[in-house]
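Thread: quick sanity check before group meeting

JM: Hey all, I'm pulling together slides for Thursday and realized we never actually wrote out the predicted structure for the chain we discussed last week. Dropping the sequence here so it's in one place. If anyone has concerns about the input, flag it before I start.
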Amino acid sequence: MNTTGIGYDVHRFADHRPLVLGGVEIPHDRGLDGHSDADVLSHAIADAILGAAGELDIGHFFPNTDESIRGISSLEILRRVREALAVKNIEIINIDATLIAEEPKIAPHLAPMKAALSAALLLAPERIGIKATTNEGMGFLGRGEGIAAMAVASVNRP
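JM (edit): ok, ran it. Output follows.
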């Protein structure tokens, strides 16, 4: 049976941190604040996959109170999610995601992001869609206070 899930994540900008999106470090003067590497794209994708599988959200499996995973790579989170679903014979079919940010420009980094996500999820790159848009200067995203991501995932469940 094919099922679909949706994921959303947002993190505020923080000084003295690298900016990681889709598992790729992107040159920028600020990174994102979070317990892990704060990769909003990977987090939204993880939540979408978990939702499609009928599981609880990313915070249940990777709580920000667990010091043993402080600074964890979000690609590692995606690998662990994929492995947990594989044990249940749940196959990821495709991912479609959108980053929402006024800056930095995302387009130059889309191919490396897709490659990193593909490797973590063992999913063909052509089954992963990544887009980027701005918030047209409106709200906290429009003021450049952070970055958000939305994702949809389809899985095949027994």
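AS: nice. The longest strand covers residues 2-14. The first helix runs from residue 40 to 52.
JM: adding both to the slides.
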